[in-house]
Write a structure and sequence with these properties.
It is a single chain. By secondary structure, the chain is α+β, with helices and mostly antiparallel strands. Helix content is about 25%, strand content about 35%. Helix 3 crosses helix 4, helix 3 packs parallel to helix 5 and helix 7 packs antiparallel against helix 8. The longest helix has 21 residues.
Length: about 425
C-alpha cells in the first residue's frame, strides 16, 4: 500500500500500481452557438435559407489529468473556465469532441441542482429512482431511504412533490442521495452554496468522513479555503485550458492572482507587461478565521468574538502598507469591510523578506449564512493600489434565535407605559 499525503499530513489510501480512478487524456469539448435560432417548425419552413452561421465556444481544450483512487482533487477557475463542463463530461451528460475519458468505479455526480430528479414525483419516489440509477438495487435503495431523508432533514416532506420544494430542500435531498450510495467516485460541483449555513457545515463534515474512508472526490469550487483544507492536489483552469496542476496552496494563490490581476491593472493604470513586477512587491500567503483561543475555525455563533488573520510576505521594502479584510455574503454584498487606513493605523515600514501576521478582531453580529473572506495588502494611500489579494475559506455564521435582517446589531428596547 502507498498513500496520498496532504499538506496537513492526512493520509488517504491508494493501492500501489493500481490504475487511476479517473483518467482524462487530451479531452476537448466545443459548443456551437448559432447566431440565429429557429423556435418553431413554421419558422424553419418559412426561412429555410436563413443564415446558419455560428460561433464556437471552446469550453474544454486539451485537458489531461490522472486522479488516483482515494484522492481528493480540486478543480478551480473563474466563471466560464470549463470546470463544470469537465465534470459533466465525466458524468456522461456531455459527449466529448476529442480525447479519452476513463472512470474506474461506481460514480455519483452532484453537479447541478435538479438534475436527475422529477419535479412531479415525491421525495420518496425520487430517492428510490436515483438510488437505482446510481447502482443500488431497489431493495437496497429502499433500505437506505430513511438514512437519506434523515441526513437531508426532510422527514416531514417525504410525500411532497419536488416542484413544491425550495432550492435549499432540493440541495439537501440531492446531496444526501449522492453520498449515501457508497460510490467510489464522487463529482461535487459548488451547488452547496444554495444550502443554508448549518447544512453546508454538515456537508463539509461529510467530506471529511468520505475523505478518511478513501473515496475519490472531484471537487469544483470558488472557495480556496476548502481547496487548501481538503484537497490533495488541485487544477486551475482558465478559458478551458489547464493553467497549472499540483499543490493546493500554490493553485489557490494562482487562482487569486488570476482573479485580481485585472483589478490591479485597472486601478493602478498599469499594462499587462507591468503587472508581474507589481505582484512581486508583497503577497498574502494565507488568510483564515480563528476562534478566540487562536484555533482555526469555519463557523461562529452570532454575538461571539471572532478573529480574521492573514500572513503577508514582503518581497521589497514597503512603507505604511494598507491591510484590509472584507466579508462577502452569498448574494455578493460586502457585509463588513475594515482596513488599517479606515481605522487610522500607521503600519510602519516592512523590509524585504519579512512576514507580517495581521489579525483583525470583531464581534460577530452578522446574519446567519455563509461569508467569504477577502484579504488584501495595498500601497499607502487610499488602498486602490492593491499589491496582492487572497480569497480565503468561508465563515458560516450560526444563530440560536430568529433574526431576519442583514445583521444582528447590538440593541435594546425601552418601553414606557402611559
Amino acid at each position: 500500500m502507498s498513500a496520498i499525503l496532504s499538506e496537513k499530513g492526512e493520509v488517504g489510501p491508494r493501492v500501489a500500481g493500481s490504475p487511476p480512478a479517473v483518467s482524462v487524456s487530451h479531452v476537448s469539448k466545443t459548443f456551437r452557438l448559432p447566431h440565429e435560432r429557429y423556435h418553431t417548425l413554421k419558422e424553419r419552413a418559412l426561412h429555410p435559407f436563413r443564415s446558419r452561421s455560428y460561433d464556437e465556444l471552446r469550453a474544454v481544450q486539451d485537458v489531461s489529468v490522472d486522479i488516483a483512487p482515494g484522492e481528493f482533487f480540486g478543480i478551480v477557475g473563474r466563471n466560464g473556465s470549463g470546470k463544470s463542463t469537465l465534470l459533466k463530461c465525466l458524468a456522461g451528460i456531455y459527449d466529448i469532441d476529442a480525447g479519452e475519458l476513463a472512470v474506474n468505479g461506481r460514480l455519483s455526480p452532484f453537479i447541478e441542482l435538479g438534475v436527475g430528479f422529477n419535479p412531479d414525483l415525491s421525495a420518496r419516489d425520487n430517492v428510490i429512482i436515483n438510488g437505482i440509477m446510481l447502482g443500488l438495487s431497489r431493495k437496497e435503495a429502499s433500505r437506505r431511504f430513511h438514512d437519506i431523508i434523515a441526513f437531508a432533514e426532510l422527514e416531514d416532506f417525504v410525500d411532497l412533490k419536488l416542484k413544491n420544494y425550495s432550492s435549499g430542500m432540493h440541495v439537501r435531498l440531492a446531496f444526501a442521495t449522492a453520498v449515501q450510495v457508497d460510490a467510489e467516485i464522487l463529482l461535487i460541483d459548488e451547488v452547496l452554496a444554495v444550502g443554508d449555513a448549518a447544512f453546508q457545515q454538515k456537508c463539509f463534515d461529510e467530506f471529511t468522513r468520505l475523505r478518511n474512508a478513501g473515496r475519490t472526490m472531484l471537487f469544483v469550487t470558488h472557495d480556496m479555503g476548502s481547496v487548501e483544507r481538503y484537497c490533495d492536489r488541485a487544477m486551475l483552469l482558465d478559458r478551458g485550458e489547464v493553467v497549472d496542476l499540483g499543490d493546493p496552496v500554490s493553485i489557490a494563490r494562482q487562482y487569486n492572482q488570476l482573479n485580481f490581476a485585472p483589478v490591479r491593472r485597472q486601478r493602478a493604470g498599469s499594462t499587462p507587461a507591468e503587472s508581474p513586477e507589481r505582484a512581486l512587491v508583497a503577497r498574502v500567503l494565507n488568510a483564515w478565521f480563528e476562534a478566540p483561543r487562536g484555533t482555526l475555525t469555519t463557523s461562529s455563533f452570532q454575538g461571539e468574538p471572532c478573529d480574521m488573520r492573514m500572513d503577508v510576505e514582503f518581497l521589497a521594502d514597503v512603507e505604511d502598507p494598507i491591510f484590509s479584510a472584507s466579508l462577502q455574503s452569498e448574494s455578493g454584498h460586502y457585509m463588513f469591510v475594515a482596513s488599517t487606513v479606515s481605522s487610522q493605523i500607521e503600519t510602519g515600514q516592512f523590509k524585504a523578506g519579512t512576514v507580517a501576521a495581521v489579525r483583525l478582531s470583531f464581534e460577530n453580529h452578522l446574519a446567519p449564512g455563509r461569508y467569504r473572506l477577502f484579504a488584501t495588502v495595498a500601497r499607502a494611500g487610499l488602498g486602490a493600489d492593491v499589491l496582492d489579494a487572497h480569497i480565503s475559506n468561508s465563515l458560516i455564521v450560526l444563530a440560536i434565535r430568529p433574526g431576519g435582517g442583514m445583521a444582528d446589531l447590538p440593541h435594546s428596547f425601552e418601553i414606557e407605559r402611559p
